[in-house]
Amino acid sequence: MNSLFWNIGPRRFAGALFIFLSIFVLAGCATYQTKVRGAVHDMRRGNMEPAVASLKPLAEKEGNDQLAYLFDYATVLQLAGRYDESTKAFLKADKLAEFKDYHSVTRIAGSLIVNEEMIQYKGENYEKVLINAYLALNYLLQNNLEDALVETRRLNEKMNFMTKDLGEGFRQNPFARYLSAMIWEEDKKWDDAYIDYVKAYEQDASVSSLKSDLIRTAWLSGNQDALERWQKEYPEIKIDPNWKNKKYGELVLVYQQGLAPQKLPNPDAQILPKLFTRPTLGVSANLIVDGTASVKTEKIMDVDYIAKRTLNDVYAQIIAKRAAAIATKVVIAEQIRKENKLLGDVALLTMLMTERADLRQWSTLPESFQIARIPLKSGRHRIRIEALDRVGEITGEKWESVNIVIKPGRKTFITWRTFI
Predict the structure, then answer these.
(1) Looking at the predicted structure, is the pLDDT value of residue 392 above 50?
(2) Are residues 167 and 60 in the same domain?
(3) How far is it, in rounded angstroms, from Cα 195 to Cα 327?
(4) Rounded to whole angstroms, how far apart are CA atoms 347 and 353?
């Protein structure tokens, strides 16, 4: 290098180095968000197979961003009805997310000299819990209660561990808790169902359906103290004898509404990320059975809110890391300046050009998870689902009439996703 430097001269060498490094920087400008943009575009228009095709090579390639791509790939596979493949991708994501947060000294140094994307994306805690929730949902959609129960146990273990390990720093996951409770209930584990409904209630007491859920499972489990407590709290909820009527089953709609907020550079500081809400016209849905009975979905988990709160919790840490990164780059440039001022200036400019916000996330999550439940007599029923706007008007997005079969004493799970 010294021979080359003196042969072409310091200024020409610095210029050549600047051009080379600039090309290197520009070549790396394709961020996670730009790579998944096309797939998200296809997904929002209901074109799941093209979305699957574009995400597959990204999800299969090992690298720092693989977990984020696996999240998106597995989600789109589920929406395409390819549940076995979706399950396989989610299981791989779960394994990646469980690796200890170990990073080599080289990669940590690289994150200071280049940017945060040099470190492997490990996922947010609420994302890690949702892996198991999605796995359980895949199994339920295939009428596989046994494996759904396995995932229920795993997600409960994961949430309990995070609660103990992180305490107040762990953002709870009400959808996972509620789904877990329904799965326990489907397995006639009334005590376990009641416990998870209580935990869901503790996370968000505003969910109105929890009133009857708590009273029903307290009654079915024979927990008289709990039953009296909740009946006193909610006297308007009466015990329904059909809760024990084996001629009835239940239809459960898991409505995935909209898209979670998108992570983009903060307009006030481009090297920092910021989450932006992706507004949709449809904010809820109406489930209609046999053209007469209907029930509106209720929001169980506001992903938009939880994602923003999670990012806000670590924002000071992100700022500190990037400040340390800039300071490190200045120190390196100063060391180079001692040998050659021009080369030091070029090095600093080039290193600063590599600074950019870490925009990795689970992009294909919904804005909210919502539930609609309706008890039905066993047999065949015809259903349709319509998306509703903020004033309850139909938006135009709908799931045309389909036939479903309700089995006595069993729950039938379906899921629907809207984007408009």
Answers:
(1) yes
(2) no
(3) 50
(4) 10
